[in-house]
Automatic annotation (TrEMBL), chain A:
<keyword id="KW-0786">Thiamine pyrophosphate</keyword>
<protein>
    <recommendedName>
        <fullName>3-methyl-2-oxobutanoate dehydrogenase (2-methylpropanoyl-transferring)</fullName>
        <ecNumber>1.2.4.4</ecNumber>
    </recommendedName>
</protein>
<dbReference type="InterPro" id="IPR009014">
    <property type="entry name" value="Transketo_C/PFOR_II"/>
</dbReference>
<dbReference type="Pfam" id="PF02779">
    <property type="entry name" value="Transket_pyr"/>
</dbReference>
<dbReference type="InterPro" id="IPR005475">
    <property type="entry name" value="Transketolase-like_Pyr-bd"/>
</dbReference>
<dbReference type="Pfam" id="PF02780">
    <property type="entry name" value="Transketolase_C"/>
</dbReference>
<dbReference type="InterPro" id="IPR029061">
    <property type="entry name" value="THDP-binding"/>
</dbReference>
<feature type="domain" description="Transketolase-like pyrimidine-binding">
    <location>
        <begin position="4"/>
        <end position="180"/>
    </location>
</feature>
<keyword id="KW-0560">Oxidoreductase</keyword>
UniProtKB/TrEMBL annotation, chain B:
<dbReference type="InterPro" id="IPR050771">
    <property type="entry name" value="Alpha-ketoacid_DH_E1_comp"/>
</dbReference>
<comment type="similarity">
    <text>Belongs to the BCKDHA family.</text>
</comment>
<dbReference type="InterPro" id="IPR029061">
    <property type="entry name" value="THDP-binding"/>
</dbReference>
<comment type="function">
    <text>The branched-chain alpha-keto dehydrogenase complex catalyzes the overall conversion of alpha-keto acids to acyl-CoA and CO(2). It contains multiple copies of three enzymatic components: branched-chain alpha-keto acid decarboxylase (E1), lipoamide acyltransferase (E2) and lipoamide dehydrogenase (E3).</text>
</comment>
<keyword id="KW-0786">Thiamine pyrophosphate</keyword>
<dbReference type="InterPro" id="IPR001017">
    <property type="entry name" value="DH_E1"/>
</dbReference>
<dbReference type="Pfam" id="PF00676">
    <property type="entry name" value="E1_dh"/>
</dbReference>
<feature type="domain" description="Dehydrogenase E1 component">
    <location>
        <begin position="49"/>
        <end position="344"/>
    </location>
</feature>
<keyword id="KW-0560">Oxidoreductase</keyword>
Length: 325, 400
């Protein structure tokens, strides 16, 4: 099985999707000849032509507006927003249009073919405008699906599933892992399910839930905890909207403890949703309060990034406190 | 090629004055030098009948709104030529992505009065399943994209839709309607820029009707209308008398030719006037003079077209009277039927959010049904459709 980094896995998924279906069209700022600022779309224009892989003007609301129309027409657009920090000019098109197309027309029209890819998250010295994790804004939007892969294998399988999904999908790519995360990825076509969490590691003492780049950080914290004899169950949500509450509930019923971690600020973050749901469904089984380990309620800093981020030590401390509650 | 000058040369738009293409004068006579478009008798009658039908539907439904029978309404009064003349120049399978005041285009394409009513009353037959406010029509069959309330969002979507048509090579284009107020939104710029860069067969049709709700155009833009913006995008543009159905028809027909044959976008600015209020919630007497409205009434697009048709012997006063009478009766009859129909079923609360109902949505819905069964009198509509379920489903009988 070949080894790929996450960018190669994403590029490979796009290549497979475009080869299979001529309705798949990739576009965004700099995605053409240049292959995107991170090179996720490298060589696609060469292979599939300028009509199917092209640069757009610098206009995020235009990119998504265009993509909505294209998807309504029956094409399968994969639109790239260069950084998730710059998705907000397109917020109206995503929240009011993409997400509501099917519902408001009584299914006369839909934009199910639409996938929006965008790099998110910190850890790359990107400061406040190249590090944000805006997932929670979008998880409040019925009609949209929100997916976040944690490694190259997941990225390829989930992206192919997103492109073929009958609903519009926002696909958040952890840019810190683009080149850092390397692993075995089958060359052939495969899909991973959207809406299903994955139990990455089984354990009996405490449940840890995360997604995207945070899974690697959780992994390090779990190593420290296991050295102390704490058996951790680790769950990657993979899909935040819809999210797989049942898998988390089942785990917490077993372990009685839950730590959720994300890079985004605490207040209004998606960890709050998980905590509320789990206390509702697992109240009598909880051995300690559900804990959230997240970024601070500030914009994302530049120089003090390491202090700001929910790292493995902060998660390890949360695990310890929960177990010793 | 770059030209150089050696003294500072500031330019403004004042050097450009965009002429207005007009064929019919208010008396329904062709202007001197005007060439009558190739519009056969039946086509011309169909165009006129849709204009007239729109006017009558609007009058009746506005009255219905005032009587409290309808929650909301928007009229097209004064702009029927701009809308119907446009639709009549398109192929019926070209996509129309409208703003909200273009019911005439839908009527031209054959949306029935019944279909209008079902949407206006949000009943069980409404294609939109009672989810949107009145006037948010849509028809897949008639290639008319369902209306969306947020302003101008349809404009870049039209560019995308038309790009897909170009790749499909089916010889069709997309026309999007919007008002001059919507041209202030970023979506407008995004749409025109992308269309001209990517050579997309899309027609941007601006209904310049003088007012964005209560804001007059001189507070909306500081230029000679919307048309000059096309220069900045290197785009074909034409300004047309929006109260002259023949001129609108001919301008759109030629724009369509450019779009489809050259894969180039075109901007059309139709100069008209919103004779009615913005919506049933608006009162123009608060922000404009009656005399201004009266001056525009003299340019009534329906009267102008009617005079032309009558002079050609393609229409008569008797036909006018009987057509009006028939339409009025049909509107009233269908309204009564639509009002009496059941509301959409309770299931429509959760369908079409996603292609398939998610487990969480199903859980929330089951919880809601249990609650409604407990308080059936508090939710007349919900309980009514639940009762139907109770009679037909064993699962529900068990729970009830």
């Amino acid at each position: 099985m070949p080894t790929m980094n996450m960018l190669q896995a994403i590029n490979n998924a796009l290549d497979i999707a475009m080869a299979e279906d001529e309705k798949v069209i990739c576009f965004g700022e700099d995605v053409g000849v240049f292959g995107g600022v991170f090179r996720a779309t490298s060589h696609l224009q060469e292979k599939y032509g300028k009509a199917r892989c092209f640069n757009t003007p610098l206009v995020e609301q235009g990119i998504i507006g265009f993509a909505n129309g294209l998807a309504a027409q029956g094409s399968v657009p994969v639109a790239e927003i260069q950084f998730a920090d710059y998705i907000f000019p397109a917020f109206d098109q995503i929240v009011n249009e993409s997400a509501k197309f099917r519902y408001r027309s009584g299914d006369l029209f839909n934009v199910g073919g639409l996938t929006i890819r965008t790099p998110y998250g910190g850890g790359i010295a990107g400061g406040l405008y190249h590090s944000q994790s805006p997932e929670a804004y979008f998880t409040h939007t019925p009609g949209l699906k929100v997916v976040v892969p944690r490694n190259p294998y997941q990225a390829k399988g989930l992206l192919l599933a997103a492109i073929r999904d009958p609903d519009p999908v926002l696909f958040l790519e952890p840019k810190r892992l683009y080149r850092a995360s390397v692993g075995e990825v089958p060359q052939e076509d495969y899909q991973l399910p959207i809406g299903e969490a994955e139990v990455v590691k089984e354990g009996t003492d405490i449940t840890l839930v995360g997604w995207g780049a945070q899974m690697e950080v959780i992994g390090k914290a779990v190593e420290l905890a296991e050295e102390q004899g704490i058996a951790c169950e680790v769950i990657d949500l993979r899909s935040l909207l819809p999210w797989d509450a049942d898998t988390v509930v089942e785990s917490v019923l077993k372990t009685g403890r839950l730590v959720v971690s994300h890079e985004a600020p605490l207040t209004g973050g998606f960890a709050g949703e998980i905590a509320a749901t789990i206390q509702e469904r697992c109240f009598l089984y909880l051995e300690s309060p559900i804990t959230r380990v997240t970024g601070l309620d500030t914009p994302f800093p530049l120089v003090l990034e390491k202090e700001y981020l929910p790292d493995h030590l902060k998660i390890f401390e949360a695990i310890r406190e929960s177990v010793n509650f | 090629m770059t030209k150089y000058v050696h003294q500072p040369l500031f330019m403004t738009g004042d050097e450009f004055s965009i002429a207005t293409f007009s064929l019919l004068d208010p008396e329904g006579e062709l202007y001197e030098g005007a060439k009558e478009p190739d519009l056969p008798r039946d086509h011309a009658r169909r165009l006129y009948q849709a204009m007239l039908g729109t006017r009558i539907l609007d009058e009746r439904m506005m009255a219905a709104q005032r009587q409290g029978r309808l929650s909301f309404y928007m009229q097209s009064t004064g702009e029927e030529a701009a809308v119907v003349g446009t639709a009549a120049a398109l192929d019926d399978a070209d996509m129309i992505m409208a703003q909200y005041r273009e019911q005439g285009a839908l009527m031209y394409r054959g949306f029935t009065i019944d279909e209008f009513m079902n949407q206006l009353f949000g009943n069980e037959l409404d294609y939109g399943k009672g989810r949107q406010m009145p006037i948010h029509y849509g028809s897949r069959k008639l290639h008319y994209m369902t209306i969306s309330s947020p302003l101008a969002t349809q404009i870049p979507q039209a560019t995308g839709y038309a790009y897909g048509q170009k790749l499909a090579g089916d010889g069709h284009c997309t026309l999007t309607f919007f008002g001059e107020g919507a041209a202030s939104e970023g979506d407008f710029h995004a749409a025109l820029n992308m269309a001209s860069v990517h050579q997309v067969p899309v027609i941007f049709f601006c209904r310049n009707n003088g007012y964005a709700i209560s804001t007059p155009s001189n507070e909306q833009f500081a230029a000679d209308g919307i048309a000059p913006r096309a220069f900045g995008y290197h785009m074909h543009v034409i300004r047309v008398d929006g109260n002259d159905a023949l001129a609108v028809y001919e301008a759109t027909r030629q724009a369509r030719k450019i779009a489809v044959e050259q894969n180039q976008p075109v901007l059309i600015e139709a100069m008209s006037y919103r004779l009615a209020a913005h919506s049933s919630s608006d009162d123009p007497s608060g922000y404009r003079a009656k005399s201004e409205e009266e001056a525009w009434r003299l340019k009534d697009p329906i009267l102008r077209m009617q005079k032309w048709l009558t002079k050609k012997g393609w229409w008569s006063d008797e036909e006018e009277a009987s057509e009006q009478e028939t339409l009025r009766r049909e509107v009233l009859d269908t309204m009564k039927r639509a009002e009496k129909r059941s509301p959409p079923s309770l299931d429509s609360l959760i369908t079409d959010v996603y292609a398939d109902i998610t487990p969480e949505l199903q859980r929330q819905y089951d919880q809601l049904k249990r609650h409604i069964r407990r308080y059936p009198d508090a939710y007349p509509r919900g309980a009514r459709s639940l009762d139907l379920e109770v009679n037909t489903s064993t699962e529900s009988q068990g729970e009830a």
